[in-house]
Specification:
Strand order of the largest sheet: 6-9-7-8-12
Shape: globular
Strand content: 25-35%
Order of helices and strands: EHEHEHEEHEEEHEHHEEHHEEHEEEEEEH
Distance between the termini: 53 Å
Number of strands: 19
Helix content: 25-40%
Largest sheet: 5 strands, mixed, barrel
Number of helices: 11
Structural class: alpha/beta
CATH architecture of the largest domain: Alpha-Beta Complex
Length: 355
């Protein structure tokens, strides 16, 4: 059985004002049916293949997690409550240690809670393709077939095919977020894929690599779980031990230096929903290319993302390529091509709290 490990940290600042630190994007109904967290749970709902999910989150988000788990009818999930954020490598280590305590042969499927997939069967088929290599000790990642030379994602360069696992390739290297010319060159070369941050691996293999490459992190996380407090379905790692851990991503801490890493190319209609422009790309559009959500009037307007929450109305005339969002008392208006700069508003608000 595969243990789904759902990483539910982060605040999604590029989707302000809907996404905030207290109620981040993974718990918001931004795409499809229900929150992105619920959609992530649904990818691993088949109990013939997947064990009960394990969610890693901070204390501020436990109530959101429990609400969505109840909405999904999942009563046997466990929630690992991080005392503080330490990036993805320590978070995954906590989950791997907890999974191993239950089953020494645990395999974990690590998924961020705030991604979208429109073709889940393709993703599930990729998991099945990876399993022979994973059972033999490989750390598997999933490479998303790139649609354009994106500079905001890391890339995975695929090498030789595995003889005993069709559709699975050795990883030649990981490439950090590239400049545009390098991204264009990788697409032209082929065999390069977006790094989605989704991993399938035996828990013991991941922890062995962590111990080899990051012994201090491995030791702190092991101590934190050994001294953890369990409260019903919640696991509370020891605070002092966990805060002693270095903070780093799984990519830097483990994957880039790991032995026996493989990639499974897949095209599951994936998006990390990194901002309002991504939601425009994902959304259903009218004849003029506008995504309209809520009470919206658009006259002579083209290619806008218009979202009216909370009973408010948005009316636009003769504008193009804008993002206009109302949520609570806040209104956001920004050119769609500059939507990533929403993060600067969050930074401004943090530095200038209301009096």
């Amino acid at each position: 059985m595969i243990v789904p490990v759902i990483l539910s940290g982060g605040s999604g600042t590029r989707l302000w004002p809907v996404s905030t630190g207290a109620a981040p994007k993974q718990f918001q109904p931004l795409t499809g049916k229900g929150s992105m967290f619920l959609q992530t749970l649904d990818r691993a709902i088949d109990r013939k293949r997947f064990a009960a999910p394990m969610v890693v989150c901070g204390p501020a988000h436990v109530a959101h997690v429990e609400k969505d788990l109840a909405a999904a009818g999942i009563a046997d999930a466990r929630i690992v409550v991080e005392p503080a954020a330490r990036n993805t490598a320590p978070a995954i280590a906590l989950a791997a240690l907890a999974a191993l305590a239950d089953d020494a042969a645990s395999t974990i499927l690590v998924m961020p809670a705030d991604h979208v997939m429109t073709d889940v069967p393709a993703f599930l088929a990729a998991i099945e393709a990876a399993m022979p290599a994973v059972e033999a000790g490989a750390l598997a990642t999933f490479g998303i077939a790139p649609s354009h030379p994106e500079t905001g994602y890391g890339y995975i360069a695929a090498g030789e095919k595995l003889a005993n696992a069709p559709g699975v390739y050795e990883v030649r290297r990981f490439v950090e977020k590239p400049q545009r010319d390098k991204a264009e060159a990788m697409l032209a070369e082929g065999s390069h894929y977006w790094n989605a941050g989704i991993f399938l691996m035996r828990a013991d293999r991941f922890l062995a690599e962590l111990e080899r490459q990051q012994p201090a992190m491995a030791s702190c996380c092991a101590e934190a779980i050994a001294a953890a407090r369990t409260d019903a379905h919640q696991v509370h790692p020891d605070t002092a031990a966990f805060l002693s851990s270095p903070a780093d991503s799984i990519d830097y801490a483990v994957m880039e230096g790991a032995e026996n890493v493989v990639v499974v190319p897949v095209d599951p209609g994936w998006s990390d929903v990194g901002g309002w422009a991504a939601l425009h790309a994902l959304g259903d559009k009218d004849a003029d290319g506008n995504v309209r959500i809520g009470d919206v009037i658009a006259i002579g307007a083209e290619n806008n993302y218009l979202r009216a929450d909370g009973g408010k109305r948005i009316a636009v005339v003769g504008v193009s390529d804008l993002v206009v969002v109302t949520h609570g008392d806040d209104i956001l208006i920004i050119p769609r091509e500059r939507a990533q700069e929403v993060k600067s508003i969050v930074e401004y608000l943090a530095s200038n709290p209301p009096q």
